[in-house]
C-alpha cells in the first residue's frame, strides 16, 4: 500500500501507513537519538539564530547532515517579521544550502515575505540543489515565481480553509511539484490528503501515488 508522505512535521509518526519527515531544530540535536532510524530533517531556523553561537549550531547541522536518517536540511530560510538581522539570516541560510548541496539532500524552506531574497540566496549555490517551500499559503504569482526554478511547494492545514491562498492555488500547481504536510498542526495527514484530493478532483489513492513518486524522485540522490 502506498503510504501517506508527510514531508514536514514537528510531531512523531502517527501510524505505520505514514512516512513522516520530522523536523529537528539545531538546538535540539543534543537530545536527538542518532541510533533512531526514523527520517528527520535538521536545520537552524531563522527564529533561533543567535549572533553569539550560530557558527556552533551550523557545525552541528553539518555534522548531522551525513547521517542516513537525515533526509533533508531545514527547516531554514528567511523571515521578514522576526527580530533577527536579515544579513545574518542570509549567511545562515546560504551556509545550510551549501551543506545540503554537499550531501545531495534537499532543503526545507521557511519563508515569510522574503521570496525574492530566498531566490537570490539560492542563486549563489553553484551545485545542484532542490528547495521545498513548506507551508505554502501564498498567491498564484508567488507560486509561479517559485515554479520557474522547479522548486517544490508543500501545502498543509491552510488547505482546510476554503478562503486561503493555498486552497486557491493548490489545483494549479503541477503534480510533479507538490507535497503535503502537517507542520506543527495536530491535524491528521489523512485529512490534509482528503481535502487536497477534493481540490484536484482526484482520488486520495491517486494523490498518494503522485506524492509518493515525487518523494522517490526527490530523495533518490540521498546517500544510502
Unreliable stretches (pLDDT < 50, length at least 5) are none
In the sheet with the most strands, the strands line up as: 1-2-3-4-5-6-7-8
Largest sheet, strands/sense/barrel? 8 strands, parallel
Envelope shape:
globular
The whole-number mean of residue pLDDT values reads: 93
Strand coverage percent? 15-25%
What does the model show?
The relative contact order is 0.15. The chain has 224 residues and is of the alpha/beta class. Helix 5 links the parallel strand 7 and strand 8 (178-180). The radius of gyration is 16 Å and the shape is globular. The chain has helices at residues 54-65, 86-102, 115-122, 140-147, 165-169, 189-200, 204-218, and strands at 4-9, 18-25, 40-43, 70-79, 107-112, 131-133, 152-155, 178-180.
List the helices and strands and how they pair.
Blueprint: E1 4-9, E2 18-25, E3 40-43, H1 54-65, E4 70-79, H2 86-102, E5 107-112, H3 115-122, E6 131-133, H4 140-147, E7 152-155, H5 165-169, E8 178-180, H6 189-200, H7 204-218
Parallel strand pairs: 1-2, 2-3, 3-4, 4-5, 5-6, 6-7, 7-8
Helix pairs in contact: 1-2, 2-3, 6-7
Main features:
single chain; 224 residues; alpha/beta; eight-stranded parallel beta sheet; 7 helices; 20% strand; globular
In short:
The chain has 224 residues and is an alpha/beta fold. The chain has helices at residues 54-65, 86-102, 115-122, 140-147, 165-169, 189-200, 204-218, and strands spanning 4-9, 18-25, 40-43, 70-79, 107-112, 131-133, 152-155, 178-180. It is globular, with a radius of gyration of 16 Å.
Amino acid at each position: 500500500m502506498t503510504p501517506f508522505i508527510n514531508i514536514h512535521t514537528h510531531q512523531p509518526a502517527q501510524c505505520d501507513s505514514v512516512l513522516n519527515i520530522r523536523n529537528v531544530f539545531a538546538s535540539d540535536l543534543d537530545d536527538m537519538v542518532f541510533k533512531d532510524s526514523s527520517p528527520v530533517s535538521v536545520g537552524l531556523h531563522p527564529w533561533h539564530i543567535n549572533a553569539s553561537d550560530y557558527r556552533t549550531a551550523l557545525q552541528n547541522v553539518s555534522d548531522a547532515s551525513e547521517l542516513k536518517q537525515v533526509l533533508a536540511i531545514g527547516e531554514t530560510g528567511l523571515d521578514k517579521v522576526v527580530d533577527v538581522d536579515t544579513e545574518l539570516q542570509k549567511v545562515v541560510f546560504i551556509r545550510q544550502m551549501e551543506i545540503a548541496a554537499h550531501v545531495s539532500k534537499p532543503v526545507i524552506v521557511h519563508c515569510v515575505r522574503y521570496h525574492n531574497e530566498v531566490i537570490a540566496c539560492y542563486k549563489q549555490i553553484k551545485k545542484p540543489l532542490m528547495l521545498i517551500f513548506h507551508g505554502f499559503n501564498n498567491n498564484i504569482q508567488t507560486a509561479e515565481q517559485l515554479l520557474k526554478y522547479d522548486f517544490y511547494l508543500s501545502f498543509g492545514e491552510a488547505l482546510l480553509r476554503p478562503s486561503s491562498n493555498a486552497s486557491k492555488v493548490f489545483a494549479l500547481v503541477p503534480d510533479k511539484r507538490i507535497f503535503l504536510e502537517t507542520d506543527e498542526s495536530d491535524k491528521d495527514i489523512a485529512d490534509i490528503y482528503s481535502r487536497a484530493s477534493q481540490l484536484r478532483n482526484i482520488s486520495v489513492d491517486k494523490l498518494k501515488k503522485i506524492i509518493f513518486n515525487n518523494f522517490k524522485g526527490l530523495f533518490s540522490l540521498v546517500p544510502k
